[in-house]
Amino acid sequence: MPSNFKKLVRDRMAKTGESYQTAARHVRSAGEGPPVGRFEALVLLFIRLAKARREEYEADPRYRTRSSTGEALDHAIEDLESPPPCDKAFNEAIFAIPQEDVWKLAAVMYAGRDNTDLLTTYRGKVGNKRVVMSIVEKSPLDEYLEAGLAKAKMDGFDLENGFQGTSK
Known about the structure:
By secondary structure, the chain is mostly helical. Helices cover 65% and strands 0% of the residues. It has two domains: 1-35, no CATH class; 38-155, no CATH class. The chain has helices at residues 5-16, 20-29, 38-59, 70-78, 85-96, 99-114, 118-125, 131-136, 141-155. The longest helix is centred in the first third of the chain and has 22 residues, at 38-59. The model has no long low-confidence stretch (mean pLDDT 78).
């Protein structure tokens, strides 16, 4: 891990105008930042998938009239003969991960959206069978996950080990 990570991030921010979190993600993905753990890598994957999905919906004229609610998004998907490629990739990924990781992902998402405590949020999600839908229906999911990841880091929450022993 290079000791000049913050300098690399700040240099990228100055060059691109990106936020700290976005610049840090790009620096990490270029292999220049500190290593991330398995779950953090999973969160970063879902940030990329959710961003691609949101951008595809925003670019497609069939979805320009949709609201930001999941209900309108679901209605638009039902009108298609087959789901858009972004949905297919996202759905394959969300249904391929263990249920425990889905609950953790939901905790990061809600912590980012509502600025709540990760552990308390996680405890409220464990056992919830609708949690996948609560993740899938969020249009700005990438933004919620980025904010949740930033909150975890700011609070010093260990995403790899902090959830252990907290299940109901």
